[in-house]
């Protein structure tokens, strides 16, 4: 691994809510971005291969449908990839895993430092309270496209991992019928301009515990994405997490 001291950064989804903030946080390190509409004056292209050639690392906060194409282009160019886009289907996730054989990829549904620690606490709660009913509630702005949020799914995976069960066997998004033992349930609310709220609730007959996170400023994600990009550029190929980047 050759750590790059001042990596050149590109942003996929640069015109979006989070992409705009990432561009601001990148400052002079920003090389350009990806959009469905090119803007040569800002070095915004529609071609992922062209962006990747001019960058050491791309922060990707765009749309799940772009993931397979980005995976192939960035792997081909040898460009590091910080992937924050959520709503990936299994095909897109397979493309991410394949790219990580060739380039360093840091995938995080949530770039917040506190939320990253939340995942570790969720794992511990899952392990320590294996028989409690686990429910995850997430609330987001009215424009959000995917549900449950990527973060909610990551919290659910952490609880399942703590319990030593396959997430796919216990995840429950449909609340109809009697609650199966061991299920990990999800509920989503959409409205207003809520930046991102996540609660993990573990319930027994005689007590309950709630772990809560509230994003108060979307910039927390942008700052985390930049930290991840600077940490990732120049690393060996592999699939990394936000927890890796935050290790002291
Ligand atoms: N990891 C994290 O911490 C966080 C992750 N996210 C995730 O980042 C992603 C972007 O979020 P956000 O910035 O709020 O979203 P926006 O919709 O504001 O931005 C996404 C951008 O992606 C581009 N895009 C490319 N292809 C498509 C497509 N088919 N449909 C829609 N947009 C497309 C659009 O740019 P153009 O029109 O110029 O092509 C758009 O502006 C989401 O998946 C979200 O869940 C969000 C917050 C935090
Ligand atoms: O779309 C958003 O806004 C957010 N998406 C991420 C997710 O799906 O978990 C992270 C954050 O909650 C904001």
UniProtKB/TrEMBL annotation:
Residues 8-111 form the Dihydrodipicolinate reductase N-terminal domain. NAD(+) binds at residues 13-18, 84-86, 108-111. One of its GO terms (molecular function) is 4-hydroxy-tetrahydrodipicolinate reductase. The active site is at 140 (proton donor/acceptor), 144 (proton donor). (S)-2,3,4,5-tetrahydrodipicolinate binds at residues 141, 150-151. It is found in: Cytoplasm. Keywords: Amino-acid biosynthesis, Cytoplasm, Diaminopimelate biosynthesis, Lysine biosynthesis, NAD, NADP, Oxidoreductase. Pfam families: DapB_C, DapB_N. Pathway: Amino-acid biosynthesis; L-lysine biosynthesis via DAP pathway; (S)-tetrahydrodipicolinate from L-aspartate: step 4/4. It catalyses: (S)-2,3,4,5-tetrahydrodipicolinate + NAD(+) + H2O = (2S,4S)-4-hydroxy-2,3,4,5-tetrahydrodipicolinate + NADH + H(+); (S)-2,3,4,5-tetrahydrodipicolinate + NADP(+) + H2O = (2S,4S)-4-hydroxy-2,3,4,5-tetrahydrodipicolinate + NADPH + H(+). Its main location: cytoplasm. Its EC number is 1.17.1.8. Residues 116-246 form the Dihydrodipicolinate reductase C-terminal domain. HAMAP family: DapB. Homotetramer. Belongs to the DapB family. Catalyzes the conversion of 4-hydroxy-tetrahydrodipicolinate (HTPA) to tetrahydrodipicolinate. This is 4-hydroxy-tetrahydrodipicolinate reductase. The gene is dapB.
